[in-house]
Amino acid sequence: MRVLAAMSGGVDSSVAAARAVEAGHDVVGVHLALSTAPGALRSGSRGCCSREDASDARRVADVLGIPFYVWDFADRFKDDVIDEFVDAYAAGQTPNPCLTCNEKIKFAALAQKAIALGFDALATGHYARLVDAELRRAVDEDKDQSYVLAVLTAEQLQRAMFPIGDTPKSEIRAEAARRGLAVATKPDSHDICFIPTGDTRAFLGARIGIRPGAVVDADTGVRLGEHEGVHGFTIGQRKGLGIEAPAADGKPRYVTDIDPESGTVTVGSAAHLDVWSITANRAVWTSGEVPDGTVEAMVQVRAHGGLAPVRATPTVRDGVPMIEIALYEPLTGVAKGQAAVLYLPDAQRGDLVLGSGRIVATDSDPRSGARRDTSAAGVDA
């Protein structure tokens, strides 16, 4: 099988490429140039796509004895990932750019080019597993990336390979060392790859500008302070609120709502963060088949968040595939723009990804949540 291996220059994608070669595939390595002005060096574990990363990937390809190319996707990355990221924050959302990159760059633009060139599959260093074309969590739960891959369609998954998803990260590094790959001890990338400084607020401020608004109390509506733009806040945020006086009860305040139209940021107690139902659009069902009615599932609403039991119902609104998610117990800090990823319940292969959608609305009313069946006759109590 002809396999295109996406090689970031890190240890994970390097071992993934090595395993594809070892499996007997005809492998070609490619590094995506995603920055219009790549730096010569990384800043420790921050950032990626530097010339150093491209050189590291090339050296690994030389060790593996495979052809290697650098493909320029910088303009596409800016349009589809960076600009969408900035626009989402300006709209009061908290996006995950890795989701967008997988959805629109790696498994769309890159995969389409690979197919056009005659490749059968795209191999990446993501920590996830494919079992009979079903997307599942990685063996290493701490490194699992099935959350950011849940945007992939059944067709995209059929052409994907995740060679390292069955192995803990510590063993991947040891394997890289055994194979003589110099990236064996290279630090993992953290934070947002196109913000190497790690200062997201400054990055957004330089592109959005100052859009002043008020910080108000959730209970009283009293104006508590001013801010320079809703892009500096996310649901559940506790620090950097710009409030001079403490709450009357002495307890912490959190961002509970963001209104981009008025520029109002609402803050309140932890109790105001409870969410009982979620509405998500851009629905994707990884099997390719939309469930026939409501399904019992587990939902994850952050890349490294926990799971909560829900009832999920596929719907269509104005021609847009949606998912209505009712929770049995409230979740806190659920932010618009993040993904709601559905997994099968633990008793039913809980590592299996059912699908996902982007969160567009939440409801704090307990009546919008799911009710447990407590009667012997199977009637909701």
TrEMBL record:
Top-level taxon of the source organism: Bacteria
Main location: cytoplasm
Catalytic activity entry: S-sulfanyl-L-cysteinyl-[protein] + uridine(34) in tRNA + AH2 + ATP = 2-thiouridine(34) in tRNA + L-cysteinyl-[protein] + A + AMP + diphosphate + H(+)
Protein name, entry field: tRNA-specific 2-thiouridylase MnmA
Gene3D superfamilies: Adenine nucleotide alpha hydrolases-like domains (2.30.30.280), HUPs (3.40.50.620), Translation factors (2.40.30.10)
Family from the record: Belongs to the MnmA/TRMU family.
HAMAP family according to UniProt: tRNA_thiouridyl_MnmA (MF_00144)
Gene: mnmA
Residues that coordinate or bind ATP: A6, M7, S8, G9, G10, V11, D12, S13, L32, G125
Active-site residues annotated for this sequence: C101, C193
